[in-house]
Structure formats: structure tokens, C-alpha cells
Amino acid sequence: MKMSAEKSLHSLVEKWLAPMSWASIRVIRFSRIRPKGSRYVCVEARRPHGSIALWFFRHKDGTWRVFPPDAKRLTIDMYVSAK
Hints:
Layout: H1 3-7, H2 9-17, E1 24-32, E2 39-47, E3 50-58, E4 64-65
Antiparallel strand pairs: 1-2, 2-3, 3-4
């Protein structure tokens, strides 16, 4: 998949749900992970045998993915200096 296609939520939804062309697809939830955090969208595909929901997360580089971006973690670095 090209980078431009990865940035489009629409194309990503089509990639994951297009094989179910008979399904009714709709956005059921969208917000941010935390205040000023990454955006997420939950898309549901309704089928005769039940529904499927997929969560898409916006990453810092502008791409949408099915996994959340890495959270910033507190790290401690150690440096050894020669005397």
C-alpha cells in the first residue's frame, strides 16, 4: 500500500471491510485517546450474521492504523563518563 493510501481512513476501511460489500458500514464512535491525544475511529460493518467493529488510530505521521500509537514512556538513561 502506498503512503498516500495509508493516510486515508476511507481507503483503510475499504481495505479491511471491502470484501464484505454486502455489509452496511458506519462510524459508531470517534474521539481522542486522551485530551490532546491521538484520534480514534470505530467503524462497524453490520452483517446478517452479526456485526464486526474495527478501531482505527491516527498516528503522528498522519497515517491511520488498526493499532494504537506508542505511548510516551518515562525512561531513565545512564551515561558513563571517563575520568
